[in-house]
Write a structure and sequence with these properties.
Layout lengths: L13 E3 L8 H17 L2 E5 L5 H15 L3 H5 L9 E3 L21 E6 L7 H4 L19 H26 L15 E9 L11 E4 L5 E6 L5 E4 L5 E3 L7 E5 L1 H6 L9 E3 L7 E9 L5 E2 L17 E2 H12 L1 H10 L1
Parallel strand pairs: 1-2
Antiparallel strand pairs: 2-10, 3-4, 4-5, 5-12, 6-11, 7-10, 7-12, 8-9, 8-11, 13-14
Helix pairs in contact: 1-5, 2-5
């Protein structure tokens, strides 16, 4: 990929990943090579050919809609906690770490987070390590089937995340399992989001321009649209919904890991449709205690590593603590 092509795009490419679920090594290598080109140039792509059904995606979306339709008192029963699990009220985050824009207004959305499950008696939870604890779930009598639907989806998405990590390894000339060792106990987030129609106002966004923190994001959109991706010319390129497809993008950790070979591309959401918008990004990240160091194949002939090694936990917590209002409030109250 030559330098002039990086960031030069006017639409989001599409990648059929069905080969990654098979055993044909040639087809897997071809898919990995195609993926690499997209991640170098665009940092975004549509993932098709996966086995996760539209019905399963829609079941999660339906559960999200039912949750957000509950009363504020009911949603507040699982208010987001110190372990970053639960309900985040409307306008509960402002992306102050954005490298794209000076953001001062909170995101026009409400959301609910479900991370990798951690039992209350897990050593990490007992020790009080960051983000280690059980998920919070709506009352089963209020939303029957909610937990089962979410957990089945997270399991399927985790398999897809591992397939992507394997393909990225192969694309760099590494053994297929090279990166997956960092995901033996992955940090995962499923975030169900609700964006009400937003008024036209300067500096107001459903989600302000930003890059994602982690390894990769796999997003399922509804049919409303509103996601836009920034190219190198400063143009915002629409990423319209494709039924059954996931929008995959590079996060900051993968960009660091690859020495910026892969681009963590800024994106935003503006819901100017006049309709309610629902989305469900799944974030697939390394284990919290993994150290992220530039991968050997990504070090150029000059031997330069652009980034110092960093503990993923430290990187993640810095961004969460800065961008989410409830964490700032808790920190202030603790002083």
């Amino acid at each position: 990929m030559n330098g002039t092509a990086r960031g030069d795009f006017s639409e989001i490419p599409k990648l059929d990943v069905s080969a990654l679920y098979g055993t044909d090594e040639g087809a897997i290598a071809d898919t990995a090579a195609e993926m690499r080109g997209h991640l170098e140039r665009t940092g975004f792509l549509y993932v098709v050919g996966h086995p996760i059904t539209s019905a399963q995606i829609e079941a999660v979306r339906t559960m999200g809609k039912r949750f957000f339709a509950l009363s504020e008192d009911e949603k507040a029963k699982i208010q987001i906690n110190k372990n970053f699990r639960g309900y985040l009220k409307f306008a509960g985050s402002t992306i102050v770490t954005s490298s794209v824009e000076q953001v001062s207004k909170p995101n026009q959305s409400e959301s609910v987070f479900f991370m990798h499950e951690v039992a209350e008696d897990d050593p990490g939870a007992v020790a009080g390590l960051p983000l280690q604890g059980p998920n919070q779930w709506p009352d089963a009598e209020v939303l029957p089937g909610f937990r089962d639907t979410i957990e089945a989806y997270v399991e399927a998405m985790t398999v897809l995340g591992r397939k992507m990590a394997s393909a990225i390894s192969i694309s760099l000339g590494l053994p297929a399992d090279s990166l997956n060792r960092y995901f033996e106990d992955p940090t995962t987030f499923l975030r169900l989001l609700h964006y009400p129609p937003q008024p036209p106002e300067d500096g107001l966004f459903g989600s302000a321009p930003h890059t994602d923190y982690g390894f990769i994001t796999l997003l399922a959109q509804d049919d409303v649209g509103g996601l836009e991706v920034l190219n190198k010319n400063g143009d915002w390129v629409a990423a319209p919904p494709i039924p059954g497809a996931f929008v995959m993008n590079v996060g900051d950790i993968l960009a660091r890991w690859s020495n910026d070979l892969f681009v963590s591309t800024p994106h935003r959401v503006i819901n100017s449709s006049g309709r309610e918008r629902y989305s469900q990004p799944f974030f697939f990240d390394p284990s919290m205690d993994e150290t992220i160091k530039v991968l050997e194949p990504c070090i150029g002939p000059d031997g330069q590593e652009k980034y110092e090694p960093i503990l993923y936990r430290d990187y993640l917590m810095e961004r969460i603590d800065k961008n989410y209002h409830y964490r700032k409030k808790a920190a202030a109250e603790a002083t």
